[in-house]
């Protein structure tokens, strides 16, 4: 069960991280605030689970699979959100 939990949390963690990474470079502070709270919250939960599982090397593969697939999926979600809310690249930075 630890492997499935870690893979799922890692997936969500990197969806959130990707959204936050993209939102930093957009002209919408509300979007960035929401994604930062989501990202930091799931990061905390993921590492809590890793610690409770004694950071076993058996969790390395599901963690990597979850994070990579979460990043790819997160980029697609970010594109859709940005189109929906009209977030544009920030030209002031």
Largest sheet: none
**N- to C-terminal distance:** 44 Å
Helical residues, percent: over 70%
Number of H- or I-type helical stretches: 3
**On the 0-100 scale, what is the average pLDDT?**
93
Structural class: mainly alpha
Q: How large is the radius of gyration?
A: 15 Å
Would you report the number of β strands? Answer: 0
Strand content: under 5%
Order of helices and strands: HHH
> pLDDT under 50 segments (min length 5)?
none
Oligomer: single chain
How many structural domains does the protein architecture include? 1
Report on the architecture of this protein:
With 93 residues, the protein is mainly α. It has one domain. The longest helix is centred in the last third of the chain and has 26 residues. The termini are far apart.
Report a brief summary of the structure.
By secondary structure, the protein is mostly helical. Helices cover 77% and strands 0% of the residues.
Question: Keywords, please?
Answer:
93 residues; mainly alpha; elongated
Explain the layout of strands and helices:
Blueprint: H1 2-23, H2 29-52, H3 60-85
Helix pairs in contact: 1-2, 1-3
């Amino acid at each position: 069960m630890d492997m499935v939990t870690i893979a799922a949390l890692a997936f969500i963690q990197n969806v959130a991280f990707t959204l936050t990474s993209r939102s930093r470079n957009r002209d919408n502070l509300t979007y960035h605030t929401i994604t930062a709270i989501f990202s930091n919250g799931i990061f905390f939960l993921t590492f809590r689970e890793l610690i409770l599982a004694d950071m076993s090397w058996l969790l390395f593969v599901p963690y990597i699979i979850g994070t990579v697939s979460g990043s790819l999926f997160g980029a697609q979600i970010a594109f859709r959100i940005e189109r929906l809310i009209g977030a544009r690249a920030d030209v002031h930075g």
